[in-house]
Amino acid sequence: MTHSPTARWVIAFLAGCAFALGLSPYDLWPCIPLSAGVLYTLLRDDPFATPWRTGLAYGLGFFGVSVSWVYVSIHVYGPTSAWLAVSLTALFCGGLALLHGFQASLFYRLGSRHLSWRLIQFASIWVLFEWVRSWLLTGFPWTYAGYSALDSFLNGWIPVVGVYGCSWLVISLGCLWVESLRDPRITSRWIATATYTGLLGLGASVWSDTTWTTPVGEPIKVAAVQPNVPLTEKWAPRYRDRILQAFQHTSSMLIEEHDLILWPESALPGYLDRFEAEIDQLSESAAAHNTALITGIPTRDSTGRFNSIIAIGAGSGEYRKQKLVPFGEYVPLEHWLRGVIAFFDLPMSQFTEGRANQPLLMAGDIKIAPYICYEVVYPDFVRANLRDAALLVTISNDTWFGASTGPWQHFQMARFRAVELGRDLIRSTNDGVSALIRSDGHILASTPQFQRSVVTGTLQPRMGQTPFATTGSLPVWVFALITLVLGRDRA
User: Fold this and answer.
1) What is the CATH T-level fold of the domain 214-464, as seen in this structure?
2) Among all residues, which ones are annotated catalytic?
C-alpha cells in the first residue's frame, strides 16, 4: 500500500508513540514488536526515498512519549520555567530521535532485496543502535525493545541472551507479524510467522525449565525502607534532625527481626562524616543482633565527593557510584554552565566517579553486588560488577521522576537485571517503587508510590552463572554485525 510522504511520517510518528505502551507501567508488550514492525514495513519499500525523515518521525514519537518524564525532572524539581523545560525536553528527545533517522537510513541503504535477509538486517541494525545508545555521550540505555520480553512468553530467553538478544527476537518477531498482516493472502508468510513464533515460545519454555543458578545457604529475612522524604525537605537544614530521627527509629524497629535492612539512595541528608556518632551507635546495635544495615549516603575525602552506599552492623564495605547522571550528579562543562539556570545548579551535583573494580559489600558472609540508581540500567555494567555476589541490591531516588512513567520503567529494568543474572534483588527507593524481586523476575512484595512504608520478606542467596552472566552482550552484538554484513553480500 502506497502512502504520501506526509502520511508515511504521520504513521511512523504514531507507531513510535505506541512503543511506550509496551513498557511499564502499561506493560502491553505486543505494542513494541508491532510498533517496530510498522516502521519496518514503511521502510521496506519506500518509493519516495524518505527513510531519514520516516525514521526521525518515528524517533520523535518514540522518545517524545517514552521519556517525556525528563520534563518533570527539569521543571518540577529543577526548578526551571515551563517554557525552558519544554525546550530542553524537546532538545533531549529530538537529539535521541536523530539516531532513529540514522538507523532508518542505514537500513534503507544496506537492506537486502531478499525478504528474509531484509527482516534479519532490520532487527540487527536496531540492536546495534541500542548498543550505540548505551555509550554515546555517556549513554542512555533506556527504553530497549527487549524489556517487553519480561512479562511475555519470551521470558525464558532473558538469562540466555540478555536484553539485547531479547530486542533482536522481539523486533524480528514484530517484522514477521506485520508482514503477515500486510498481505494476509500469502499463506507462506503466515506459516513462517507461526513457525517462528512457536519455536521462540518452545525455546523460552525449555530455558525456563533450566536451573542456571542454585541456592546457597539459608534464605534471609530482608526489609527495604521507603522513607518518602520530599526533595524540598531532603537537603534543607531545618529538616535534618527529623530525617535522622526517622532513620534511627525505623532501623531500630527492624533490626531485631531482619538479617538485612536496605535504605535508599542518599537516605541521610548530608555527608557520612557529619553523622559518624549516630551511624556508629546504630552499627553497634545492628551487630549485636547479627543484622546488616545498608544505606545510601554521600561520602567525601581528599579525592572528591561521592554518591555512596555503605554496609554497617553485621555488614561491611563501601561502594562509590561509577555511572553518574549528567546535571543531576555532575555538570558537564561546569565552568560555563554553573549558575546559568537553576537546573545546572542542583543540590549535590558535584560528585566524583567511583573507581572500577571496587570490593563487593558484605552482609555477614553473604556477598552483595550494589548498584546506585541509574547504574542498574546498564546491563553489561551490572554483569561486570556481579562477580561472585549471591544477592543484588539497588537503591535510588526516583522522586526526580514524580508521578510520571519514569519510576516504573526504572523498576522494570531492575527486574530484568535479576532475571539476566539469576539473582534475587532488593530495591529501595525514596518514594517508590521499592520491592523484593525473585531471580525469575517475580515480584515477591512491593510498596505503593508516594507513601512512607517498609517492604519485608525472605530472599534466597544464589550462586552460579546464567549464560548471559558468562558471555555478556558481546555475542549478540557480533551476531548482529555478521548478519548485517552477510545480508548485504546477498543483496
Assistant:
1) Nitrilase/N-carbamoyl-D-aminoacid amidohydrolase (3.60.110)
2) 265, 321, 373
- Supply the pTM of this predicted model: 0.95
Q: What is the DSSP letter of 330?
A: B
Closest CA to 264 of 373, 171, 172: 373
**C-alpha cell read off for 324:** 553518574
Reduce the DSSP state of residue 224 to 3 states and report it. Answer: strand
Cα distances from 478 to residues 131, 163, 396, 470, 471, in angstroms, run 11, 15, 33, 16, 12
Name which of 441, 444, 430 is nearest 402 in CA terms: 430
* Mean pLDDT over each residue of the chain, to the nearest integer: 92
Cell 554496609 appears where?
311
Distances (CA, A) of 217 to 64, 314, 317: 47, 17, 21
**Which residue ranges make up each domain of the chain?**
5-211+472-489, 214-464
Q: Which three cell numbers stand for residue 478?
A: 557480533
Note whether 86 and 464 are within 8 A (CB): no
Query: H-helix or E-strand containing 13?
Result: helix 5-19
Cell 554497617 identifies what position?
312
Q: Give the three cell numbers for residue 58.
A: 518515528
Q: What is the pLDDT of residues 287-298, one digit of tens each?
A: 999 999 999 999
On whether the CB atoms of residues 228 and 451 are closer than 8 A, the answer is yes
